[in-house]
Protein: 6-phosphofructo-2-kinase
Organism: Effrenium voratum
Amino acid sequence: MGASSPPAMDCKGFQAMSTSLLNELDGGVCNGLSYSEIIRDYPDLWAARERDKLNFRYPNGESYKDVIGRLRPIIIELERQRRSILVISHLAVQRCLYAYFTGAPMEDSRNNEGWET
């Protein structure tokens, strides 16, 4: 999956690939903190995030729009495939891929029932 991807591995008869492009959204200065800790320690950041989750970028981190940009090479590769693919990734990446492949607005994908927002 591109120059930054390691070679594919054989995993019990299935081809497996790994890439950092599927990593979770980088929370920057808030990485590793729970939402309650962010609300307590960074109330202004939390308020900005709540106003616009799609475009909000954590300081020294990423926004959902950044993740979407990072996923472009993955999406191109997935669209080329003619067989079933299993993607194992973190929630922000799943939301972005879901929105893309279902045609749902990204804003809606972050609010699907059962998905923490």
